[in-house]
Each structure stands twice: as C-alpha cells, then as structure tokens.
Amino acid sequence: MNFFNSLTGSPCNISFDLDNCQNRKTIEVTSEKGKSEKLFVFVGNEPVSGKVSINLKDKAKKIEHKGIKVEFVGQIELFYDRGNHYEFTSLVRELAPAGDLTESKTFAYDFMNVEKQYESYNGTNVRLRYFVRLTISRNYASNIVKEYDIWVINFNKPPEVNSNIKMEVGIEDCLHIEFEYNKSKYHLKDVIIGKIYFLLVRIKIKYMEIALIKREQTGSGPNVFSESETLTKFEIMDGAPVRGESIPVRLFLSVFDLTPTYRSVHNKFSVKYYLNLALVDEDDKKYFKQQEITLWRRGVSKPIANTGKPEVHNEIPTPDPDASEDDSE
Amino acid sequence: MNSKGTVAITLSPEEEQKKFLEEAKNNVMVQGHHMKVALDNGKLMDALKYTSDIINELRTSLLSPKSYYALYMVAFDYLQHLNSYLFEEKHGKRMIELYEVVQHAGNVLPRLYLLITVGSVYIKTKQAPAKDVLKDLIEMCRGVQHPTRGLFLRYYLSEVTKDKLPDVGSDESGGTVFDSIEFIVQNFTEMNKLWVRMQHQAPTKDKDRRENERLDLRVLVGKNLSRLSQLEGVDQNVYSKTVLPKVVEQIINCKEKIAQQYLMEILIQVFPDEFHLATLDTILSTCSQLQSGVDVKAIIASLIDRLANYASRNTIPENIDIFAVFFNNVKEIIQNRANMELQDILGLHVSLLNLTLKCYPEKRENANAVLGLCQQILTNKSKEEINKPTCVKQIISLLQIPLEVFKNVLAVLKLTSYQPLIQFLSYNNRKKVSLDIVNNTIKNSTIIEEPEDVNSLLETIQTLIKDETDQPEMDEIDKEDFQEEQNKVASLIHLFDSEDPEKLFKIYIVARSHFGKGGAQRIKHTLVPLVFRSLKFVTKLKKQVDDGIISLDENQWTLIGTKIFNFVMETIKALVDIKLSELSFRLYLQAIQTADKCNLQKITYDFAIKALVIFQEDIADFKAQVNALTLLISTLNSLSLSDVELYETLAGQTIKQATRLLTPHDQSKLISLCSHLFWVDHDTRQYKNPDSVLQALRRSLSIITNQSDAGLSVFVEILNECIYFFDQKSDAVPPQFISDLVELIRTTHSKEGDSASVYLQNTIKYIATKKESDKSYAEISV
Fold it and tell me: Where is this region: Disordered (chain A) (predicted)?
C-alpha cells in the first residue's frame, strides 16, 4: 500500500512500503488533527523492514543533499509539553552519503530485532508513537523529512495469579452489599462476570449500574495530569432490591476500545481501568465503590477476527453459598 | 407534582393515565415501524436497536398495572415479529453471536427483553440445550427488581418459552421435565416475591390502591402454576414429590395474605382432583401455616367441595380417608388460628359435613364427629358470638343437612352431638330447628317404634314441647303460629307406633310425660290426640285379645285394660285441671264408650262418674250444659253395660243433672230426652223400664206446662218422644196420654204464627197416617 504525501514546496514525493504486509492487520487511528488513518499493526519484536521511494516531481531538477537516512523511532508525546518528545527508541540507517539525487530512487531498509517495549497509544493527553522517518539533509534548504507510523501491540502472558475481587462494603444501618467479580485481571475480549449481593437495604434504590472508567495519568511531580473517561455506563439492576437478592453482572469488554493497563510507561504516563459500581436512590443520591481491574492483551492462537466467542453459559459462576459467610467475618 | 406552569388544566388521574399510555404507545408504534422496516431491509443490528427503543418505553414508572399491560401487549406484538424473523435465520448470524450482541445494551430492561427473545429462538433452533438457556435467562432476569417491570419481564419469559420447555418425549439433550419444573418454579418464586414486595413498598395511605393494583397483576403470577400443570411430565408422583413442596414453600415463606390466598386458590384450581387427593395432608398443613388474614376457610371449603364432587363421580382409593385427613387438619387449623372468625370455623364444619355425607354416606359416625367438634368449639365461645346471624345460619345448616340427607329422623337422633348443638341456639332458632325436625319426620312419615327414640326425639325438640326460660312473653308469640306448631307436634303421635303393645304403651307414657310439661297452652293440642291414640290402641288390643292373637285371660285383660284406661283418665285429668271442661267432658264420653266396648264395666262407670263430676263442677255455660248432657244421654244409651245397678245409678244421676239445668225449657227438654235412658234396645243390650220412661216424660211435661211462656216447640218435642215410644210398642206411653197431650197443645199452646206450628201439623199428620195402617193408633184421638 502506498501513501502519497504531497509536501508543499517539497521537490519530491516520498512513499514508504513495508514488507510482509499483504495480510497484516490494520487499525484505524484518529490522529491529532482529527484525521483518521489506517496503520499496520506490529506485534512485539517483529522486524520492520521495507522500501522507501523518493520520486522527483520535476525530473529536470536534481536534489542536492548532505545525506539520506532512515530512522525507526519510538516516542512519547505529551500534549501539554509540545515540542518535547521523548524518544525512547531510535535506530538509524544511512541510505546515501552526501551528493545529488538526480532521479527517483528507491531504498531498502531493515530494522531487525528492534525492541518495541511499549504499545502504541493514542490518549487524551499523551500519545505513544512508532514510526519510520526518512530524512534528506540539505545545505541550503530545510531538510526533507517524512514520517510513517506503524501501530505496535504487545501480547501479555496470561497472569499467573488471577484471583477474584470480592468485597463487602456498606454504610452502617443503611446499605450493605457484597460484590464479587470473577477475576481481577481481564483480557481485552473478556467478559466480566459477577454478582452483587444485598445484605442490608434500608434505602430506596432506583437502579444500579457499573461504569467502566479509564484513567490516564501523565507527567510527574507537580505536573501530574489525570484524565478520567467513562467508557460505558452499564445498568445492571432496575428497581429496589430487598435483603438477600443477588444481582448478576455480565459485561462484555470486547465492545469497548480498550488498551491493556499501563502501569508506568517510561515514567511518563500510566493508563488504568476501574469498575465503578454505583447505586442510585430515589433522591438521585449515589452510592458507589470503585475497584481497579487490570486489563491485558491476550495472545492470539486463533486469528483475532471477531468469531469464536467464549461459551457464555459456562462462564457464569454458580454462586458459592459458603463464600459470603467466610467473608462476613 | 412537577411545576410545569404551562399546563393550565390539571388532568384527573384517569386522564393522566390515558395520556401517558397514548404517548408511550405511540412511541412504541413508531419504533416498531422502524424495526419492521429495518428487518425488511435485512438490517438486523438496526432492528435490534429499534427494539431496544420499544422496550425503553416499558421502563416507565408512570403507568398503572392495567395501562402497563396495554402497553406491554403492543410491545409484545413487535417482539413476536422480531422473534419470527430471527427464527427464519435469514440474517445469517449464529444465535450465540446474537445472544452476546443483545447483551451489550446498556439498559437492563431492553437488554433482558432482547435476551429472552433471542434466547427463545436459540432454544427453538436447537443451537443450544434448552435447559442451559433457560437457566441463564432466569438468572439474568434478577436484574429487574422493580415489581411491575419485573413481573411483566418474567411473564414475557414465561410466555415465549412455554412451548419450548423440555417435557416428556422431548429431546433429552435439551433437558428433562425436571429442568422445566425448576425453571417455572424459580420464575414463580421470583415473581411472587416481586408481587408481594409491591405491597410493602407502598406508603400506608396508598394501601387500598396498592392492593387493587396487585389484584390486577395476580394472573401474571398464577400463570406459572398453570404452566406447571400443563407439563405432561408433571404426573401425580412428580407433583407430590417435586412440584408441590417447592410451590408450597414459597407460598408459606412469602408471609403475605393476598398472595397466599390467591395462590392457594389457583393451586387447587389448576391441578386435577386426583393430585389433591394424594397430597391432602400437605395442602392442609400448608393452610394451617398461612397468615392470619388469609381466608383459610374459603380455600379449604373449595377444596372440600371439589373433592366431594369428585367422590360423587369417582371412587376414592381405599387407602385415602379423605374425611379423616380433612377432619384432623381442620381441627388443627382451628386450634392454631386463634383469630379465625367463628362463622368461618362453622363454615368449615358445614363443608366437612357435606363431604362425609357425600363420600361416606354410610359412615354416620363421621357426621357425629363433625357435630361433636363443633359442639366442643362452641362451648368456649360467647353467646353474642354464636348468635351472630352469619354463625347462626351455619349452625342451622349443620343441623338441617343431616335431616335432608338421611331423610330419617331416627338416623339423625343417633348423632349424639346433634341435640347438644341445638342448645347453643337462641329460643327462636331452637324452635325453628325443632320444627324442621318435626316437619321432616312428618314429611318422610318416619314411624318411630322405640320408646327411647320417642324420648330422644321429644327431648331434641323440647323447645316446642315445654316452656323454656328464655322464651318470649306469651303475648309476644303469634297465636296462629303457635297453634300450628303445636298441631304439628301433636300429629307426631300418629307416627309413634309399634306392633308390640307393651312398647307402644310405653311410648304413650313417654310422650305423655313430655307433653305433660307443656303447660296449658300446649297440652290442649298435644294431649287430645294422645287420648284418641290411646283409646284406639286399647280398642285394637281388645280386638287382638278377642281374636286370640294375643292370649290373655279375663283377669289379665282387665288388669292391662285398666292400666291403659287409668293412663287415659290421668291424661284427661290434666286437661280437666286446666279447666278445659267441655273438651275433657267429651273425651271422657269417648273413653266411656271405648271402655264399654272393651267390656270394662268398672272403668266405664268410673269415666261416667268423672264426666258427671266435671259436668257438675266445671261446665257453667248453660248452652254447653245442654249440649253436654245431650251427649251424655246418647252415650249412656249406646253402652252395653250389663251391670243394671251401675247403669241405673248413672241414669239417675243424669236425670238429676237435667233437673238442675238453668231454664225450665232446658230442664223439660232434657228430662224428656232422659226417657231414652230407660229404653235401651240394641244388639248388645236390652234395658226396658216403661215406668221410668213415662215418668220422665210426665215430669218433663209438668215442668213446661207450669211455664207461662212455654212455647209450642217443647210440647211438640215431648209429643214426638211419646210417639217414638208408642211406635216402639214399649207400653210406656198409653194412647190416652198422647191424646191428652195433643189436646193440651191444641187448646192451650197452639198460637197462630208460632214457628213450631208446622212441626205440630206434621206430627198430627203423622199420627193420622199411622191411624190408617196401625191398629194400635186407634186409641189415639187427635
């Protein structure tokens, strides 16, 4: 696939071509300027190789240059700190020494074993990009630079420990509930199964919902920016339950645009996810409890295509009658 | 209410409902239209979204149950449309995908309606085992805890799965009937909880409205029980072992009267009688555990009535004693429910009684047990409570039913608790029941042959027999009614009968002793027939003796006859004592004749003396005296008394009484009649005393002759008497006597215009005629 990018005043058109991309998955990404583009998805340490073509617009005009190079860059862009991009990875390949480019030319490049530690990320206040950059250095004119983004994802190993989340919360003599989510760590296509058990209800509840919240935190020290985004409000109960009722929770994560949990990316930012269980009473008063869940990206044995859903019924945990007793101590 | 200042007119609650409903309905139809268009264009995902919008209208809290139902029905049609589209599989999606997709909906109500819709197709396409889908659906439905919305959601679940439940003969891999039972019972349980909760969540002031709303919704809950009953796999065994215990558990545990009442009624209604028969204990012990406000009586009564009807059409298995089960349970329930209304307790007794009489007509001890229990209960109740009209009505039913069923008062009297039960009633009601008993006896012509039975009957109806402490004042009692009652009681005597004279006599003695307590107003009705029956009895007995059917020698007969007549005498005496002189007098005469026929001279004489005494002492009215004496004369004349001495004493006494009459006219008339006492000439007796005859006639004549206003008629009568005796060839009246008499009448007493003139003319004509044919008349001159 070719990308044509006409640079005003630029004497040439530059196009990148990546190897092994006939069947490569793409992802649609909305860029800073609101444009959406399709990027090829790379996993982990996959090599990035390909060709870059420089086509002169006017064949009579040669381009004098001090050298042509191609770089592979991984960088973090903090929106509040424009211009300061943190490159955490950068590899360079010299394509041509200083000279004149008199005709259109195609160069091959190859970044083998390039480490792509972080996943690409396109957040509210921060962006993590990987791209290939061609630079034609010039003496008298400004350098000709062209960047070409790819999208990187990393599969995680299934968590070794994945206990459920179970907790009793309440307001004395008013409301006591026990909630349980079947896991603490969910992969991105996972289903959150849970139940809310009402131990004491003295308020008139109107409804109960679970919100999935994404919290992006950038910067450090005095310059910490926190951005919360509610990805969904999922009503799980309508009406007022009485003591002893248990309400099922089943939330399919595949619908949402999620990333794995990023604890600390190059000490620049983190992305965490929370389940916020909220009960609303008839006076629209809210009672809630937030609980972090860890999201991880599951490796695909099967193609990532949207088929082969988990057998839903088998994943419904049967309520454990002893569980609540153990926990009430 | 919200301050929507722009709305100037306040709508009435009804108008408001209508408005809300119309709006919601419109929205549903608009979204429904979009959904259908989307389906027509094969855009399933869009269609699902529109369906979700349809269901969003069902999230309203503004509608009453009735309006909500109307809205639900509109939405239901669209869901059905979607349902059939999904089943046709044109969409090319696997059901498992759709099953997930619909769960992405953010609101729980649309999500669940969609899930159920897809789930039902999922089962129907057999892409998943029915039992798994059902289990999942029912579990997920917990998300709706709002009573009305939850009830309708679960009703929807029940509606769309009803033809997909695993049952006998369906594919095993989809589950068995037990999965279906589990599913329905769980749905039932949850629905009932929601339904009950509705009550508790309303403010107290809205209680009535809430109760009405709940009644509107009860069918939704009850439907589950019908579904259970429709499962082929629910046979009697499964019902009693699996279904009933679970259903009953919920009914008891919900601890709410409206629900318990309704569900018990439905339970009894939807399952067949055979099932109830096999599980009577469970059902009844459930009844005993229901809330105090539940009308347990209605439940049990309807069950009893059903089974009683069932028993009349089918034979009940011998190992089930329906009555015993009901009886013991009812007993226990009454004991445990301290605040049960007496009328309800009694109503249960009525049902029990009907049950045993229908199912076990031959086991009368059952009926007695029912009455006994009732008696025992009433002992601890206050008079006021017992005498409430509703209670009285039931007690009377308890007493009437055996009469109607047995159609034999003897069988009723065998129920030892019958009579004590009457005693709880007030005077008028006791009387009413007693009359029922009497009427029943008469209507069925029940012959009572045993003295004990007579005793027991009369004791039972004692309110009619004697005065009682709580009876109203005599002048408050309607005379006609009273007489009619007493006449009925009196007519019972005719049903007391026995082939065995000894027994029959005993019966009369028993009756006498009961009637004897009745007081003046009653005995004048009751003792008279007793006297007549006794006389008839003794006459028959005598005939049997004479015919040799009963062998008694003369002495024995005299002894027995005397005993019977003494009884009669004593009975008449009771009437004498209350100054019913004329009546007693006539009874004595009757007795005289009977005793005479029975050849008991002494008795005859005694009765005659009694008659004379009463005549002398107690008959004051002179017209009555004339009548009485006339009767006495003819009675004495008719006797066959052979003892001349006795007879003459009586005759003498009679003349004596005649001379004591008030007016000379009467004296004369009666003395002339007395002449017949001395000329007895019939088959059984000849007694002729011509001198006395003439003497009487002379005396009579002399009395009347001395009167200034003698009048013609008495003379003519005397003349006729003379002619009679002359005709009899008695030699008592000489021809000259007659001639002189005629002469006397003609000269002295015949006046123009006297009403007796014709009588005289006719008499003379008679003599003239006789003269032509009868030689003896030659000596008479007229």
Answer: 303-329
| Low-confidence spans in chain A with pLDDT less than 70 | 1-9, 32, 301-329
Confidence grade of residue B707 (pLDDT, cut at 50, 70, 90) = confident
Contact A234 B143 (CB under 8 A): no
Give the whole-angstrom CA distance, residue B563 versus residue A16: 148
Which of A94, A119, A153 terminates a domain? The answer is: A153
Whether A192 and chain B come into contact, CB under 8 Å, resolves to: no
Q: Which residues contact A231 (CB under 8 A, 6 or more apart)?
A: A211, A212, A213, A214, A256, A257, A258
Distance CA A276, CA A290 (A): 4
Q: Which CATH architecture has domain B440-470+478-619?
A: Alpha Horseshoe (1.25)
Nearest CA in chain B to A239: B146
Cβ distance of B108 and A238 shorter than 8 Å: yes
- 8 Å CB contact of A312 and B108: no
Residue type, B188: F
A108 and A72 fall within a common domain: yes
Q: What is the mean pLDDT of residues B645-665?
A: 90
CB contact under 8 A, A238 and B145: yes
CATH number at residue A58: 2.60.40.640
Domain that holds residue A53: 12-153
Contact A235 B145 (CB under 8 A): no
Q: Using a CB-CB distance cutoff of 8 angstroms, which residues of chain B are in contact with residue A255?
A: 104
Residue A327 domain-assigned (yes or no): no
Interface subset of A 208-267, CB within 8 angstroms of B:
232-242, 245-248, 250, 252, 255
Q: List, for residues B209-267, the tens digit of each pLDDT value.
A: 888 889 999 999 999 999 999 999 999 999 999 999 999 999 999 999 999 999 999 99
Q: What is the pLDDT averaged over residues B299-313?
A: 88
Residues 6+ positions from B740 with CB-CB distance below 8 Å: none
Out of B318-322, B594-598, B636-640, pick the least confident. Answer: B318-322
B144, closest residue in chain A (CA to CA): A238
A83 & A184 share domain: no
Specify if A42 maps to a domain. yes
Q: Do A90 and A204 share a domain, yes or no?
A: no
Q: Strand (E) positions, chain A?
A: 12-18, 26-30, 36-43, 48-56, 63-78, 85-101, 105-111, 121-122, 126-137, 144-153, 165-171, 175-181, 185-187, 191-201, 205-218, 225-238, 246-252, 262-265, 269-281, 286-296
* Tens digits of residue pLDDT in A274-305: 999 999 999 999 999 999 999 999 987 544 44
Residue A166 sits at φ, ψ, to 5 deg, of -140, 130
Same domain, A178 and A88: no
For A184, which DSSP code? S
A313: which chain B residues are within 8 Å (Cβ-Cβ)? 128, 132-133, 135-136
Kindly provide the ipTM of the predicted complex, given to two decimals: 0.85
Question: Average pLDDT over chain B, rounded to whole?
Answer: 91
Q: How many domains does chain A have?
A: 2
Whole-number pLDDT of residue A1: 37
Sort out which chain A residues have CB atoms less than 8 A from B201's CB and list them.
204, 240
Q: Single out the residue in A130, A153, A176 at which a domain terminates.
A: A153
Q: What is the pLDDT of residue A9?
A: 66
